[in-house]
Design a protein that fits this description.
The chain has helices at 31-40, 52-59, 92-95, 107-110, 128-141, 161-177, 184-196, 200-204, 208-215, 219-225, 247-252; strands spanning 2-6, 21-26, 45-48, 67-71, 99-103, 119-123, 147-152, 181-182, 235-238, 241-244. The chain has 253 residues and is an alpha/beta fold. The chain folds into two domains: 2-29 and 110-237, Alpha-Beta Complex (putative 2-phosphosulfolactate phosphatase); 35-108. The strands form two sheets. Strands 6-2-7-1-8 form a five-stranded parallel beta sheet. A five-stranded mixed beta sheet has the order 4-5-3-10-9. Strand 9 (235-238) and strand 10 form a beta hairpin. Helix 6 (161-177) crosses helix 7 and helix 9 (208-215) crosses helix 10. The protein starts with a strand and ends with a helix. The mean pLDDT is 95. The structure holds D-malate (MLT). Residues 27, 29-31, 72, 75, 85, 104-107, 153, 213 line the site of D-malate.
Length: 253
């Protein structure tokens, strides 16, 4: 078993590289955290688009009683959107049974990548242990899976320290539980996590994107996004749709 990490969404031959991999897609600040929160609050599904224009067009085709148009550009809610990308906006009252159409700067740009993978999961610190348990179960039950790939959203094509930290938390868990080899990128992420695991929130507050969010008034998002195991759910990706795995599906791995 190989544990690999893409710390920035680099171009790669998507037709072969991911076909025997479980892919864990990470955007700590904030798309993964927001998606986990919304599904935990019983949103029906998340539909992702890569542009705001596509999000608006899709929203206009759906019964607006049952849908929310959400997202951000440069951290802020675009004009005419019903919600931004703060997890605090995705309360049960607001999202229960609704379709959330979501477009963000980084997160929703990666969730449609690695389409050849048989299993793509949205993850962050808030669902860390649930994802680790599910993926371990999956790889133990499926001999076709040869690798686990941590796929970080990054920040506008560059390294995101908080995504690298989260990727390292996953690598460390799998390295402790599996007989596996780490690529250099996975090893780097694991080393970063081992350096800062004692105080994740304070560390994340020092990152570029956290400082931008703080300046925009989203300080509470940093606290939420760095809280381990807040929501024990598994969001899985199929095409442009992200839904929560049912308990039986989680159990069967
Ligand atoms: C995102 O895609 O989640 C972005 O990285 C930015 C944000 O939500 O502030």
């Amino acid at each position: 078993m190989i544990i690999d990490a893409f710390l920035v969404p680099t171009a790669i031959d998507e037709n072969t590289y991911f076909s025997n991999s479980v892919v864990i897609m990470i955007d700590v600040l904030r798309a993964s955290t927001t998606i986990v929160t919304a599904l935990s609050n019983n949103a029906r599904e998340i539909i992702i688009t890569d542009t705001t224009e596509k999000a608006v067009k899709l929203y206009n085709t759906i019964d607006k009683q049952n849908a929310i148009l959400a997202g951000e550009r440069n951290g802020m809610k675009p004009d005419g959107f019903g919600a931004g990308n703060s997890p605090t906006e995705f309360t049960k009252e607001k999202v229960e049974s609704k379709i959330v159409i979501l477009t963000t700067t980084n997160g929703t740009q990666i969730f449609t990548r690695a389409k050849e993978s048989p299993c793509r999961i949205v993850a962050s610190f808030v669902n860390l242990s649930a994802v680790c348990e599910y993926v371990l179960n999956r790889v133990k039950n499926d001999p076709a899976v040869h690798s686990i790939i941590l796929f970080a959203a990054g920040n506008k094509g560059r390294i995101s320290y908080e995504d690298t930290l989260a990727a390292g938390a996953f690598v460390r868990h799998f390295h402790n539980e599996l007989n596996c080899k780490l690529t250099d990128a996975a090893h780097l992420a694991k080393s970063i996590y081992e350096m800062y695991k004692g105080n994740i929130t304070d560390f994340i507050r020092t990152t570029e994107h956290a400082k931008l969010l703080e300046s925009l008034g989203f300080d509470s998002d940093i606290q939420i996004a760095s809280t381990i195991d807040l929501y024990p759910i598994i969001p899985y990706i199929e095409g442009n749709s992200i839904k929560m795995l049912k308990a039986t599906e989680v159990k069967n791995g």
